[in-house]
Amino acid sequence: MNPEQPEEPGKPAPPTQRGTPVGRRVLLGTIGLGALGVVTAPTLQRALEGFLGAAAGKDPTGLTGLLPNGGGFRYYSVTTSVPHKDASNYRLTVGGLVDRPKTYSLDDLRALPQTRLVKDVQCVTGWRVPDTPFEGVRLSDLLDAAGVRSGAGAVHFTCFDGAYTESLTLDQARRSDVLVALRMQDKEIGHAHGGPVRLYVAPMYFYKSAKWLSGITVTEHVERGYWEHRGYDVDAWVGKSNGRDDDPTS
Ligand SMILES: Nc1nc2c(c(=O)[nH]1)N[C@H]1C(S)=C(S)[C@@H](COP(=O)(O)O)O[C@H]1N2
Ligand SMILES: [Mo]
After folding, report:
1. pTM above 0.85, yes or no
2. Nearest atom (ligand 1) to Cα of 199
3. When you count CB atoms within 10 A of the terminal residue's CB, does the N or C end of the chain come out lower?
4. Nearest to 195 by CA among 87, 116, 61
5. Domain 85-230, CATH class in plain words
6. Do 155 and 221 meet the contact criterion of CB atoms below 8 Å apart?
7. Ligand 1 pocket check for 78: Cβ under 6 Å
């Protein structure tokens, strides 16, 4: 890993860079910020989990957000709390440089053709979950329906957590393995995994797969996303970007 990277996707930010979540800031103070630059990502992850294992169950502040999300996944959110949405109030807006802006309900998305992909999930911090099914609407179908205008070059994503953002070039967004996902592990996507709708960018590190997706905006140029503002690649191809290679033990 690049020791100059101040943060890792899914990891707490140094307190000078972000005000929340408070619980993680307290934790970082506890283990010592000075250590962050020298330990490897998996080592840090294990250290945090060991600490958090002791704290689990008696911490209302969000520390336990770093614990595994089940089935090998880890739960990540850059915010302390996220509203819950379901078919009654979920909306996805598609806008920006398009001829036909549109707002979709969950039922609207369910009514569109669905694509199922089964690939490995790879977080840039090193953990991996093999053969994970995702299912949903191809992003390219939504872009075609909206009518992307000439001059457009990128797509920006916003989330109803109010904080996380992501981006893709238009070429990347049109790949057939990029989904607006409604299902994960052959179930509806639960809240913790970013349900009811998350982005799924199969060929890239998992930080690209924005949870709690609420907005798709076609733009002229790439507007970098949350982790991309913090030094991570927009082109986050697994094994070929500034994250880690695809060996989770390294
Ligand atoms: N809205 C939102 N999406 C997000 C994140 C986040 O903090 N907020 N974290 C990213 C990172 S770094 C990872 S590894 C995955 C984690 O997904 P999971 O919680 O389903 O395991 O979500 C990605 N999408
Ligand atoms: Mo991540």
Report:
1. no
2. 24
3. C
4. 87
5. alpha beta
6. no
7. yes
Q: Is the CB of 161 under 6 A from ligand 1?
A: yes
CB atoms within 10 A of CB 236: 27
- Ligand 1 within 6 A of CB of 160: no
pLDDT score for 241: 84
Q: How many CB atoms lie within 10 A of CB 184?
A: 22
DSSP conformation letters of 185-219? TTEEPPGGGTTT-EEEETTB-GGGS-SSEEEEEEE
Neighbours of 176 (CB within 10 A): 12
**Pairing verdict, β 91-96 and 178-184:** unpaired
Task: Kindly give the pairing relationship between strand 178-184 and strand 198-201.
Answer: antiparallel
Read off the pLDDT of residues 192-245 as tens digits, 9 standing for 90 and up: 999 999 999 999 999 999 999 999 999 999 999 999 999 999 999 998 887 544
